Amino acid sequence: MNFQRNRQREALEINLIPLIDVLLVILIFVMTTTTYSKLAGLEINLPTAEAPENKTQPVEINVTITAAGEISVNKVPVAGQDVAAIQDALQQANSASKATGQPPVVIINADAKATHQKVIDVMQAAQAAGLSQISFATQQAQH
After folding, report:
1. Which candidate, 15, 48, 98, 133, has a CA 20 to 30 Å from the CA of 40?
2. Spatial CA neighbour of 66 closest among 118, 125, 134
3. Domain spans, the chain
4. How far apart are alpha carbons 93 and 109 in whole angstroms?
5. Whole-angstrom Cα distance, residue 117 to residue 29?
């Protein structure tokens, strides 16, 4: 039984006015609660100083380790492969650089395929020779 036979249906519509009112209230809420912080800082004048540039370069002892395990100190091949032979070569290179009065820096240039033991041997020989500043030479990875 259909009792609403002669009644016309109302067209459905979306009322946008309440939606706009809600959005305006949210916008006002966000604007009032947001803190617009101005970076407060003190104006200071930092002191200035002049210092002469350090014109002396540190003395470098270059140790090269090849993939085959051959070691050379300042491009001079080391006769033996044990720690004592490497220590002797490092001490000879250190005695040549003692004129500057600065402690030399031992730069280890090891091949990527060199064994870790050879690098450790060079580090032990440098420690035994009294050379405490050690650096490793690297290159940037190529993509």
Report:
1. 48
2. 118
3. 60-136
4. 16
5. 67
pLDDT in tens, 31-61: 888 876 666 665 666 667 676 776 667 788 9
Burial group, residue 14, by CB count within 10 angstroms (0-12, 13-18, 19+): exposed
Beta bridge partners of 73: 63, 76
Q: What is the mean pLDDT of residues 92-115?
A: 82
Residues 13-27: tens digit of each pLDDT: 888 899 999 999 999
Q: Which fold has domain 60-136?
A: Nucleotidyltransferase; domain 5 (3.30.420)
Tokens of 114: 């060199």
Cα distances (Å, whole numbers) of residue 65 to 26, 35, 40, 78, 96 = 69, 60, 56, 10, 21
